[in-house]
Design goal:
α7 (268-281) packs parallel to α8 (297-307). This protein has helices at 56-70, 80-86, 127-136, 188-196, 206-215, 231-240, 268-281, 297-307, 328-333, and strands at residues 6-7, 24-27, 30-35, 40-51, 92-93, 98-103, 106-112, 118-126, 143-148, 159-165, 170-174, 181-182, 201-202, 219-227, 247-251, 286-292, 312-318, 342-345. The chain contains nine helices and 18 strands. The longest helix has 15 residues, at 56-70. It has three domains: 6-52 and 92-165, Immunoglobulin-like (Sandwich); 56-87, no CATH class; 170-358, Rossmann fold, CATH 3.40.50. It is an alpha/beta fold and 368 residues long. The protein is globular. The strands form three sheets. Strands 1, 2, 3, 4, 5, 6, 7, 8, 9 and 10 form a ten-stranded mixed sheet that branches. The chain has a six-stranded parallel sheet with strand order 15-14-11-16-17-18, with helices on one face.
């Protein structure tokens, strides 16, 4: 289980690092939200600690899993891309490690890692402190940057970022596979190869659409059933292709436990819970939910739109199989959702009229 720690703003001058010289810490982009009527911010921290290894037994287990799922040949595992993508699956996760971070001129406890190496914490910082930090942050006023506390003499830097998201405005929750990245999830063999053997390919036009929304003030949350081990290449893909930076919400996976069976399994339980958590944390924000018809996005997003009609102002589903709006599946998924609140699209050019400034006033234009 992940650990959850609620930390006050008192500095921890005597905090000691438990990060050894052969261990690595990765922080995942998270968000902060205002609490106490704007007098404070609740800041989420999430990361993992591990020892990089080229474990031959884990490598064989991963290869066996991928051969079973997608017919991957053993010689295909010798390619550069496979070795880079597989590296994070072969590490030795470090459990029971207390992590401390330095944010500005103060040090805070950031949780203790579980058996899978993941650690989480929630910091509560006064609004005045956050204002001071955001003015000085090199990433701009929407982000806070921090670093892990390392041992004396360890000059490595493990940095993390937190997106500051206000109580009002527009947020976009976006799926990744077959929404912004070509994955072909319905073809298991192609999915394995697109994930582990090929350079990631963007869905044409989606980066431009998202940048337009970001320029108008939208905040982004990237939600995927991909495992956290793929965070590195996914983050590089989003940066390299010009997608706006955002928070990440991926799936836990370990080769040695039952989660290995769900590497490419159903997303519904995990993604539904992640959407609900984000919506609950920002009850006054408007949301555009973007996904595709390859797996359960229509059902997950349709349920969210019915439950939160004041928050979910648009659901946009990329059509990957040629089915239309009148398809029985879509009618069932969006039952009782107003017709002008959801759209099926083939190309992002069809979404030119979906803008942050009019997202709360759905278009009466005929749907594609």
């Amino acid at each position: 289980m992940w650990s959850f720690v609620f930390v006050l703003t008192l500095p921890m001058a005597d905090a000691k690092s438990e990060i050894k010289d052969d261990e690595v810490v990765v922080f995942y982009p998270t968000y902060a939200r205002q609490v106490d009527d704007g007098r404070a911010w609740s800041v989420s921290v999430h990361g993992s600690i591990f020892e990089p290894e080229e474990d031959s037994l884990k490598r064989e287990a991963l290869l066996a899993l991928l051969r079973r799922l997608g017919g991957l040949a053993k010689e295909e595992a010798e390619t550069r891309i496979f070795k880079e993508r597989a590296r994070a699956f072969l590490v030795d996760n470090e459990g029971g490690k207390g992590i401390a971070i330095r944010l500005g001129d103060k040090v805070y406890a950031a949780g203790t890692s579980g058996a899978d190496g993941h650690f989480t914490a929630t910091l509560k910082l006064p609004a005045a402190e956050v204002d001071r930090l955001r003015r000085a942050d090199p990433d701009g006023p929407d982000w806070l940057t921090f670093q892990a506390v390392t041992r004396p003499g360890d000059r490595r830097t493990f940095a993390g970022r937190v997106r500051l998201i206000g109580p009002g405005g527009l947020s976009v929750i976006s799926d990744v596979d077959d929404t912004i990245k070509v994955s072909m999830v319905r073809d298991r063999r192609a999915l394995v190869r697109n994930t582990f053997l090929r350079e990631f390919k963007p869905v044409e036009g989606m980066a431009e659409l998202y940048r337009r929304w970001a320029d108008a003030g939208a905040a982004f949350h990237y939600l995927s059933a991909s495992p956290w081990q793929l965070y590195g290449p996914l983050c590089e893909f989003i940066e390299d292709q010009g997608f706006p930076p955002g928070t990440f919400h991926l799936k836990r996976f370990r080769l040695k436990d039952r989660s290995a069976l769900g590497l490419f399994g159903s997303q519904e339980g995990y993604k539904s819970a992640a959407v609900e958590r984000i919506l609950a944390d920002f009850p006054r924000r408007r949301f555009i939910l973007v996904g595709d018809a390859g797996e359960q996005d229509p059902e997950i997003y349709g349920a969210a739109a019915r439950k939160h009609p004041e928050q979910v102002v648009r659901v946009l589903i990329r059509n990957v199989d040629g089915s239309g709006r009148e398809d029985a599946r879509f009618k069932a998924a969006f039952d009782a959702v107003p017709a002008d609140r959801w759209r099926i699209f083939r190309h992002p050019q069809k979404l030119a009229d979906v803008l942050p400034e009019n997202a709360a006033r759905p278009s009466e234009r005929p749907q594609d």
